[in-house]
Amino acid sequence: AYKxxxxxxxxxxxxNACSARVAKxxxxxxxxxRANPFQHRICRVFSTSDNGDDSMCFExxxxxxxxxxYSATSDVKSHYAFRxxxxxxxxxxxxxxxxxxxxxxxxxxxxxxxxxAEMEQLIQNILEESDIDKxxxxxxxxxxxxxxxxxxxxxxxxxxx
Length: 161
What we know:
Keywords: Calcium, Magnesium, Metal-binding, Repeat. The chain has 10 helices and no strands. The chain is mainly alpha-helical and about 160 residues long.
């Protein structure tokens, strides 16, 4: 992990990798993130940068790699998947978050975008399946309950594609 982190730094900063921060643009070159539709959210969630640039220190990088590892528990993976899907960072997945998740999954091309009616129906179906307390949002425990019933989430780790 340290070697991979160091290689993302400019050559002149590699000797002090423990105190350096890797730019988000470099983090996004990692094969694990390059094609991930949630790459920007992943950087946001794992970065501890105070200035909002989503850069990562070595500890941030380790945290991210540990969640992506096959040895991470389903609870850990689902916790971070929830945070990644919670675009407004309010602790719930509401209709706007769910729409952004769907748009990330369908890609930037307009030809694959859902119509407003299709999007509304999909979000309604997601909420009917997941919103146990019927408050119009999905909280972490509801999310974890749903993914615990998904063998693919457990098998493939949830965050990996």
